[in-house]
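User: I'm curious whether this sequence folds into something compact or stays loose and floppy. Could you predict its structure so I can see for myself?
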Amino acid sequence: MAQSLPFQIEDEAVTPLFMRIAHAIIRDIERGRLRAGARLPGTRSLAAELGVHRKTVVAAYDELALQGWIVVRPSRGALVALDLPDPDLGLRSARGDEPKAPQIGGQRAASPENPSHLVFSDGTPDPRLLPRAELARAFRRALGSHTFLAPGGYGDPRGSLRLRAALAEWLTSTRALAAGPDDILLTRGSQMALFLVARVVAAPGEAIAVERPGYPLAWAAFRAAGARVIGVPVDREGINVEALDRLVRRDRSIRAVLVTPHHQYPTTTTLGAGRRLALLRLAAECGVTVIEDDYDHEYRYEGRPVLPLAASAPGVSAGPVIYLGSLSKLLAPGLRLGYAAAAPEILQRMADEREAIDRQGDVPLEAAVAELLQDGELRRHARKARRVYLERRDLLVARLSQELGAVLSFDVPAGGLAIWARVQEDIDAALWARRALNLGLTVATGTRFALGPDPAPNAFRLGFAALAPDELTAAVRRLAEAKPA
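Assistant: Here's the prediction. I'll summarize afterward.
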């Protein structure tokens, strides 16, 4: 029987009410008050109890179902999901803490206990392609090396000199960056780099402009570092530089802007030459730092990769650009290895901040990846991955066009690991995703990438790289089956 749910809703002006209700229910699930299979109150009764509109509760339940916390049965109402781990295991909230299960864009993904569940990720590589044998051999050599075993304390918080040198050479040859080892800082994934950048470019209370829609975990990192986040609209050509110009000249507290110009996250569009020049000119005139997140540069299928903004600036050490990248996108998400390229004085400040939370990186991993870079194995792997992902992109394009072309529209991305599919206006993408989840398919909707009170794009971000051809075919079939009438 449904139960009354008196609970406290957090008073956060920046968080929509429906999300605060969802968060309160998540907290009750995590602390064991609501157990697996427990029936939630009906939307009308809970709305009356909370003194809110029923549509607000419906939206909260939709969000919970989308994340996998609850399931909605026509005959029984809303129930706490049966596949949740025991709350006594000490799970932490998904609202910024470590997730409870593998997540894609905030949604619960497949688990070893449910291998039949398919996930359209938000754009992750396939770890099954990882050159395991080569990495394992390099890792064993690193573990036995004098560098790893020598006494003398901790390593350099900037990361392994060998990997920084190899990476600088790679960035110079493939992306035209004027970078040396002292221009590189290694981090445990690009997420750490985003946090450290925010700590050095913005004082507490100052602002960083971000793309809207954009990358929520970057916003979380900036806020955790003490910065405010202000959205700048994105259109079919990337970030609207004219809107950014007006914003920066009106609000002098904006110290930096985060952009994903190669393949905008999540829409995949490439920032054109005119806007690139205008952005760099604006940054120079107004003293704004450009944080360039080039998270999947290796994956370009048509034409040559577009050079980074950092390559257009007058050298890494002289330009207003801090360049971020990730080797995790090239290897596997579980191997946390990112980097920042910037002026040495900026990197030193980032290293100082890093020592407060992490005195050094993963020395054996950095040594092993340096070896893979130096002997050409990483380049070979990148070429292989591009071929595989191009085939998967084309397969997804063909299947979507064949089965869902009447209700989905998309531009075939020239690169990257995902497709941004716009949903027909009279179909609710969130409802569609919820129905797909009941059929064993996780898909990230535009809700994942909306900032604050902005209306969420009625769209899907469909990551194709992590799914084999048979999995892609099955995923599109489930998506088509789940389409609302």
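Summary: The chain has a mean pLDDT of 85. The two ends are 31 Å apart (CA to CA).
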